[in-house]
Design a protein that fits this description.
The complex is a heterodimer of chains A (390) and B (286). Chain A is an alpha/beta fold. In chain A, helix 2 crosses helix 10 and helix 5 runs parallel beside helix 6. By secondary structure, chain B is mainly α. In chain B, strands 1-2 form a two-stranded antiparallel ribbon. In chain B, strand 1 and strand 2 form a beta hairpin. Classes of the chains: A alpha/beta (390), B mainly alpha (286).
Chain lengths: 390, 286
C-alpha cells in the first residue's frame, strides 16, 4: 500500500512537473503603455487592435502560459507620467513584461526602472536610435530614422538625383532624418543645396516651398509627423508647382495609411522609403489586414499596427519560453528571425533592434479605389544604421 | 523682386486665413466682452459638419458650406441659451475656465463621433488648380479666401456701423442696463451676435481647412493664433483685426522664407512690441 502510494505520488509529481506551467493557474501579465486619449490617441488604438488580432490568430497562451494585456494611457510625450505608469504596472498590477511606447522621451524614462526590476520591454514605435542602448531589457520592433532615411538617399542617388534640398520639422526625429539623409547623400557625391528646419506648429508651408523652388534642386527630402503637418505639406508641394517643376519629393513616414485618404489625390505618385506598407503583397500581410478589417471595420494597418503585431510576437516568444522567469527572456529573442506582415525580419542579437527590408513605395489607387503605398523596390535586411554608423 | 512679391502674396493669403478664423472672436470677445476660449470649437463644429456632409453624405461643397455654417449657428444658439447667458455675468477667470471646459466638451464629442484623425473637406476640383499671377502661380483656394475675407470685412462693417442691429448691439455692449431701459431686447441681440460670431468661426474654419486642417484638437492647436490676432488688432475692432491678421501673416511668412530656423518667433516678437507700445492693440477702443 505504501509502495503504491509512493509510486502514485511520484507519478503525479512527474506529471505536475511536466505539465506544471499549463496546469498552474498562472497568467503572465503584459503592460502596454501608449496614448489612448488626446491628440495621439490613434496610436493606442492601432496598437490595441493589432494585439487583439495577434491574440485572435495565435490564441491567448504561449507555452502553457496564459497572457493578459493590461493597457495604460500615457497621453502625449510625458516622461514622468510614463515612468509612474510603468511603476504602477510592475508593483500593483504585477506585470512581468512591458510594451508600447510611442515617444522617445517616454521610452527613455522607463530605462532605469526596467533595469532595476528586470522587465523585458518591447518598443512598438519610439524611433530614436539610442533608446535600445539605455537598457539591456529593451527590444524594438519599429524602425529608426537612420534605417529608412539612408536607403532613401541611396535610392535617390541611384536614380540620378544629384542635388537635393532638405526640409524637416525642427524636433528630434526631424534632426535624425536630416543628418541621416545628408550624410548618406553627400557620401555618395550628392549635393545638399539647402537645409530648412520648419517649426513644429507650422501648417502653412508655402514660404518653404517657394524657397525650395527658387533653388530648383532635383529633389526635396522631407520629414514631418503624419497628421496636419504632412497633410498641409503635401498640398503645398503640389499647389506651389514643385511637382510640375520636376522637384521630386522623397520622404519616409509622411504617407501614413491613417492620413492617406485625407490627403487624397494630392498624394498620388509621392515616393517614400519605409519598412511597412499596408499594401505589402504577401499572404501574411493579407491575413493580417483581412483580420483587422473583420474585427475592426473601417480600420487600416500602418507602422503602429505592424510594430505592435510584431511586438506581440516577440512577447509570445519570450513568455512561451520562460513564462514569468523573465530575467533571461531577452536572450530568447536575440537573433530571432521570422516572417512579419512587413516581410522577413530579425532581431539583431547585439543591438536588439529589428533588422528589416526597407521598401521604396509610391502612392497609387488600388483596384478598390483606395490610396495605398505601392512597393516597387526593396533594400534588403537593413539594420539600424544609426547604431552601426554612429 | 519676385521674392518680395512672392512673400507678399503668400503673406496676404495666410493673413486673410488668420483674419477669417479670428474675426468671429473679435465679435464675441472683442465686442461682447466674453473671454471665449471656445471660439475654435465653433470652427471645429463647422469644419467637422462640412466634412461629414461632403465625405459621408455626398452633399456638394457649395451647399455643404452654408449648411455647416447654419448648423454651427444653431448649436451656438443652444449653447448661448444654456451656458453663455450665465457666463456673461462671470468674472474673467470664471469665463476662462467655463469656456475652456466647453472646448474640451467639443473636442471629446468630435473625437468620439469622428475620431482623432484629419477630417478633410472635399473641395471642388477648381479650388486645387493653380492660377498664374504673372510672376508666380497660386492655388485657387487661397484666392477664394482672400476674396471672401474682403467680403466679410465690408459686410461686417456695414452690419455694425450702418444697420439698426449694429447700433443696438453697440448700445447693448456699452451699457446693457441703459439699453434695456430704452426698450432694446438685449437678450435677443446678444444671442444673435453670439451666433454670428460662431457662424463666422465656422466659415473661417471651413475656408481655411486646406491650410489649417480640421481635426478634433483644432480648438487648442490654433487657440493662440486667434487670441493674438484679436489682441494685436484691438478688442472689438474689425478693422484692427484685419490689419493685425494681414500684418502678422506677412511678417510670419517673410520670416519663414528668409530665416526658417528662427521658427515663428517673429510672430510673437511683433505681438509683444505692439502690445508694449499700444496695450489696447492697434485700433482698440477704450
Amino acid at each position: 500500500m505504501k509502495k503504491l502510494f509512493a509510486a502514485l505520488s511520484a507519478a503525479s509529481a512527474i506529471g505536475l512537473a511536466s505539465a506544471g506551467p499549463a496546469l498552474a493557474d498562472h497568467t503572465v501579465k503584459v503592460g502596454i503603455i501608449a496614448p489612448f486619449s488626446g491628440p495621439f490617441a490613434i496610436w493606442g488604438k492601432q496598437f490595441q487592435e493589432a494585439i487583439e488580432v495577434y491574440v485572435a490568430q495565435n490564441g491567448e497562451s504561449a507555452g502553457g502560459h496564459r497572457i493578459e494585456f493590461v493597457y495604460k494611457d500615457s497621453g502625449g510625450p510625458n516622461p514622468s507620467g510614463t515612468k509612474a505608469l510603468a511603476q504602477e504596472l510592475v508593483i500593483s498590477d504585477g506585470v512581468d513584461y512591458l510594451g508600447g511606447f510611442v515617444f522617445t522621451p517616454n521610452a527613455l524614462a522607463v530605462a532605469p526602472l526596467i533595469d532595476e526590476a528586470q522587465i523585458p520591454t518591447v518598443i512598438f514605435n519610439a524611433a530614436t536610435s539610442i533608446i535600445v542602448e539605455k537598457s539591456d531589457y529593451f527590444v524594438r520592433t519599429s524602425f529608426s530614422l537612420w534605417q529608412v532615411s539612408v536607403p532613401m538617399a541611396e535610392w535617390a542617388y541611384a536614380q540620378g538625383i544629384r542635388t537635393a534640398a532638405i526640409s524637416v520639422t525642427d524636433y528630434g526625429p526631424g534632426n535624425d532624418a536630416e543628418i541621416a539623409f545628408k550624410t548618406a547623400f553627400e557620401a555618395l557625391g550628392g549635393t545638399v543645396v539647402d537645409t530648412i528646419k520648419m517649426p513644429l506648429a507650422t501648417t502653412d508651408f508655402a514660404p518653404f516651398m517657394q524657397r525650395i523652388k527658387d533653388q530648383s534642386p532635383d529633389a526635396v527630402f522631407g520629414f514631418l509627423p503624419a497628421g496636419p503637418p504632412s497633410f498641409a505639406y503635401i498640398k503645398a508641394y503640389n499647389e506651389n508647382g514643385l511637382r510640375e517643376a520636376g522637384i521630386e519629393f522623397l520622404g519616409t513616414g509622411e504617407m501614413d495609411e491613417t492620413t492617406l485618404e485625407a490627403i487624397g489625390d494630392a498624394a498620388i505618385g509621392i515616393t517614400t522609403a519605409y519598412h511597412y506598407s499596408g499594401a505589402h503583397p504577401s499572404e501574411m500581410n493579407q491575413a493580417f489586414t483581412d483580420k483587422i478589417d473583420e474585427m475592426f471595420p473601417g480600420s487600416v494597418t500602418n507602422l503602429a499596427s505592424v510594430g505592435a503585431y510584431d511586438g506581440a510576437h516577440i512577447l509570445y516568444q519570450m513568455i512561451g519560453a520562460v513564462g514569468s522567469e523573465r530575467t533571461e527572456a531577452v536572450d530568447v529573442v536575440r537573433g530571432l528571425a521570422w516572417e512579419s506582415p512587413r516581410g522577413p525580419v530579425s532581431i539583431d542579437p547585439v543591438t536588439r533592434h529589428i533588422t528589416q527590408n526597407v521598401y521604396i513605395r509610391r502612392v497609387a489607387r488600388d483596384e478598390n479605389g483606395r490610396l495605398v503605398n505601392e512597393e516597387f523596390d526593396v533594400i534588403e535586411a537593413v539594420p539600424d544604421l544609426g547604431l552601426v554608423e554612429n | 523682386m519676385s521674392v518680395f512679391f512672392g512673400i507678399l502674396v503668400d503673406g496676404v493669403s495666410y493673413g486673410m486665413i488668420l483674419f477669417m478664423i479670428s474675426v468671429g472672436l473679435t465679435i464675441t470677445m472683442g465686442l461682447m466682452r466674453v473671454i471665449n476660449l471656445a471660439h475654435g470649437s465653433f470652427a471645429l463644429i463647422g469644419g467637422a459638419t462640412a466634412h461629414w456632409l461632403t465625405s459621408e453624405m455626398g452633399v456638394g461643397y457649395y451647399a455643404a458650406v452654408p449648411l455647416a455654417v447654419l448648423a454651427t449657428m444653431m448649436v451656438a444658439m443652444v449653447l448661448e441659451k444654456v451656458f453663455y447667458r450665465k457666463i456673461y455675468q462671470f468674472t474673467e477667470l470664471q469665463q476662462v475656465l467655463a469656456t475652456i471646459g466647453i472646448t474640451f466638451l467639443c473636442i471629446a464629442t468630435v473625437n468620439y463621433l469622428l475620431g482623432s484623425t484629419i477630417l478633410p473637406i472635399k473641395i471642388p476640383e477648381v479650388f486645387t488648380e493653380s492660377i498664374s499671377l504673372g510672376f508666380r502661380s497660386m492655388p485657387v483656394h487661397r484666392l477664394v479666401v482672400i476674396v471672401m475675407g474682403l467680403v466679410v470685412v465690408v459686410a461686417l462693417f456695414l452690419l455694425l456701423e450702418r444697420t439698426n442691429f449694429g447700433i443696438q448691439l453697440r448700445a447693448a455692449v456699452d451699457n446693457r442696463t441703459m439699453a434695456d431701459a430704452l426698450g432694446i431686447d438685449t437678450v435677443r441681440i446678444f444671442a444673435l451676435s453670439f451666433s454670428l460670431g460662431a457662424g463666422l468661426a465656422a466659415f473661417g474654419g471651413i475656408l481655411g481647412a486646406e491650410l489649417l486642417p480640421v481635426e478634433a484638437y483644432y480648438p487648442l492647436r490654433y487657440m493662440v493664433l486667434f487670441l493674438v490676432v484679436v489682441a494685436v488688432g484691438g478688442m472689438g475692432s474689425i478693422a484692427g483685426s484685419f490689419l493685425a491678421a494681414i500684418g502678422l501673416g506677412i511678417i510670419d511668412t517673410a520670416a519663414r522664407y528668409i530665416v526658417p530656423e528662427y521658427g515663428t518667433i517673429f510672430f510673437f516678437v511683433v505681438m509683444m512690441l505692439v502690445l508694449a507700445l499700444r496695450p489696447r492693440g492697434l485700433l482698440g477702443r477704450i
